[in-house]
Amino acid sequence: MSELKKGLEGLASLDAEQCVLGGLMLDNDRWDEVAMLISAEDFYSRPHRVIYKEMARLVNAGRPLDLITVSESIESQGNLDQLGGFAYLAEISKNIPSAANIMAYCEIVARYSRARQLARIGADITHEVRQPGSDITHIMEKAERDITRLAESAEPEQAITLFDGMEKLLTELERRCGSPGGITGTPCGFSELDAMTSGLQAGDLILVAARPSMGKTAFLISLILNSLMKTVDTVAQFYSLEQPAEQILMRMVSALGGVELQRMKSGLMDDEDWARITPALQILMEDLPQRLIIDDSSGLTPGMLRIRARRNARKYGKPSLIGLDYLQLMRSPEQENRTQEIAEISRSLKALAKEMECPVVALSQLNRSLESRADKRPNNGDLRDSGALEQDADVIIFIYRDEVYHENSSDKGTAEAIISKQRQGPTGVVRLKFEGKFTRFSELSVEGRY
C-alpha cells in the first residue's frame, strides 16, 4: 500500500486546496456553491480536510468564516498545532487575493479526488486478482459497482428552472401528439393494454407477477414479439435466467407459427407443422435477427446485468425494451438477507430503466399465501420477498387465469392482466386470450371480449 500512497501524491494540487480554503475565508457567501461540488474527503491533505470540516461546522452553527474564527475553533479542540498552527492558517488566508476563481479551484480539487479514487479502485483490483483462488467474476462486479458509484457522484446538478422544465415538457407533448393511436411508449401489441398505458414508457420499471403456471414467460415473450413487429428498427434485450435460449426460441416459434410446443419438444411433427414453422422461422431469421438479443446467463447480479445491457446497447443499438425472466433468480451477494437483496435488485432495475431510457419488464413470483384465499386474484401485498418491489415499480401487472384453480371455469382459454398500479395512468383489468399449447397471449375476439 506504500506504493499506492506514493502514487497518489502526484494526484493532488495542494495549491488549489489552499485557494479553496482561503477563498471561503474571504467570501463566506460562496460556501453553498463550494459544498455542492466538494466535501472534506475530496481534500488530499489531512490538515486541509480538518480545516474544511471545521468550516462546515461553523457554517452550520451560523458563525462567520475568517482567520480568527476558524483558528480559535480549531484551537479549542486542541488540533491547531497539528495543522501547522496559526501561521499556516494565516498563510492560507493571505495567499489568495480574491475568491473570484474559487469554483475553478474546486473543480481541480474534485478532479484530483476522483482520480485518486479511481487509482484506489485499480489498486484494489490488482491486489485482489493476485490472491490465491480469487473470484474474478466477483472482482469485476465489485469494480463495476465502485466505478458506477464514482461516476454517479460526479454527475452535474440535476435541478432545472421552471422555464427550462416547461420547455422540455412542451417538446415532449408535441412528440406525444404526433404518436399514432396515442401510443407514446413501446407498444404491447394488446390494444386494450396499450390504451390504458399508452405503451410501456421509457424509464419505467414494469413488474409482471403471477403464481406458477399462469403464463408469465409466455406473456413476456408475446409482449416482446408484438413490440418488435409493431415497430421498425427497434431492439429488445431478453435476459432469461430460468430457461436456456434454445427453449425461449422454441417457444417463440410455437407462438408465431401456431405449432403445439409439446409436438416440437417431442419431435412428433407432421408436414402441416413444418409448414407452420417455416414462416415463423422466416420472421425470426429475416425480420428480427439483429433486433432480439437473448442472454440466458444464470445467476446474474445487478452489476453484471447493467454491464451486459450497456454492451449489447453499444453493439446492437439502444433497446426499446428490456425483459427479465425472472427477478427472484438474480442475486446480490453483498446484501445481508433476502429482503435487502431483492430491494437492491429492484432499485438497480429501476436505475437501469432510467439509464437506458427504455422500459424494463421484470417477471416476479408471488407469495404462496394467496393460495389459501377464496379469491386467488393477486394484489400488491402478494409480491414476494420485499415491499421495495411495490415501491420501485411504476407499473404492476398481475396475470391471473381462473382455469388454473377451477377446472370447470367458464373463463377457459382467457387470462386477466390486472393493472394494480400505474403511476401515470389508470388501473383496471384487461382480458386476453391464452393458448397454452402455443404458449402465447393474444387479443380476445370482439365477440369474446368482456
UniProtKB/TrEMBL annotation:
Signal peptide: none annotated. Residues 179-448 form the SF4 helicase domain. Keywords: ATP-binding, DNA replication, DNA-binding, Helicase, Hydrolase, Isomerase, Nucleotide-binding, Primosome. It catalyses: ATP + H2O = ADP + phosphate + H(+). PROSITE patterns: SF4_HELICASE. It is an enzyme of class 5 (isomerase). Its EC number is 5.6.2.3. Pfam families: DnaB, DnaB_C. One of its GO terms (molecular function) is DNA binding. The main replicative DNA helicase, it participates in initiation and elongation during chromosome replication. Travels ahead of the DNA replisome, separating dsDNA into templates for DNA synthesis. A processive ATP-dependent 5'-3' DNA helicase it has DNA-dependent ATPase activity. Belongs to the helicase family. DnaB subfamily. This is Replicative DNA helicase. The lineage of its organism: Bacteria, Pseudomonadati, Pseudomonadota, Gammaproteobacteria, Enterobacterales. The gene is dnaB.
